[in-house]
Amino acid sequence: MIDKNQSVVVVGAGLMGTGIAHAFASSGFATRLVDSNGQALEKALQNIHAILDGGVKLGKLAADVAEAAKARLTIHTSLAEGAPGASLLVETVSENLAVKKAVLAEAVPLLLDGALLATNTSALSVTEIAASVPHPERVIGMHFFNPVHKMKLVELVLGIATDAATVALTREWVEAIGKTSILVNESPGLTTSRMSAMLGNEAMWMLQEGTASAEDIDTALRMGFNHPMGPLELGDLTGWDTRLSVLRYLHSTLGEKFRPCPLIIKMVAAGRHGRKTGHGVYQYDAAGQRVPGSGLKASNL
């Protein structure tokens, strides 16, 4: 059973790690955010505090509750500092199989006996990641969605060894942070990532071919299908470097329908990864706000 005395370690202080750490800390759990990059940790901490302070300003969160959540969150530059005694580890490091395996292998001796090991991977094999630890039955995919503090869904991904007890306990963790889980058998791209990758890739083909402007493609999906964001806006938020990595993996496993659009490859080569670099399909100012009228058009390509 889950109780609020249990602690969680989140590895990786990027966009997803920031959101996941916020979700656990704001739900009453002592949460340790680990990253070797101290600057990334400080930025993550500032962003989490900003989310909490924003909730107070909007009247959605009491000031003392926000301060308590801040107090429950600590940052660490090593697993040796952050992992000891944790009941749950969620890794959200780069989409690199060797890196993910190394994180889990290093963490296992430090965690509480019987701790769950979760990976936030959107495309890699949970089974392969689990092969790096002595008890692969305790490894599960725990795929969150961005922005984590607004998105309610978590995909639970079953590796070949994941057992029923792990599934049941992970569902309890998801419920404890106020989210809804679905079960997915391991498959390249899972459910949402596979559909999102195809949608974003097709949107980029349309942009490259001059079918419509970036703004109009995004408006079509938002207004015509009631999506909260258009596929090009979402790609800028996620990062086209991440999207390209996922598409290349899906292309290698599922075939030609996932061949990356050349425009994505060109943008990544140019360093135009999206919001995090200030330029993707759209341009962004220093505050991360989209510059009006900055979307790529066929004449720019």
TrEMBL record:
GO terms for biological process: fatty acid metabolic process. NAD(+) binds at residues 12-17, 35, 95, 100, 122, 146, 276. This is 3-hydroxybutyryl-CoA dehydrogenase. Keywords: NAD, Oxidoreductase. PANTHER family: 3-HYDROXYACYL-COA DEHYDROGENASE FAMILY PROTEIN (PTHR48075), 3-HYDROXYBUTYRYL-COA DEHYDROGENASE (PTHR48075:SF5). One of its GO terms (molecular function) is oxidoreductase activity, acting on the CH-OH group of donors, NAD or NADP as acceptor. Residues 8-186 form the 3-hydroxyacyl-CoA dehydrogenase NAD binding domain. NCBIfam families: PRK09260.1. The lineage of its organism: Bacteria, Pseudomonadati, Pseudomonadota, Betaproteobacteria, Burkholderiales. It holds the Pfam family 3HCDH_N. The keyword DNA-binding does not apply. SUPFAM superfamilies: 6-phosphogluconate dehydrogenase C-terminal domain-like (SSF48179), NAD(P)-binding Rossmann-fold domains (SSF51735). The record marks 143 as: Important for catalytic activity. Residues 191-284 form the 3-hydroxyacyl-CoA dehydrogenase C-terminal domain.
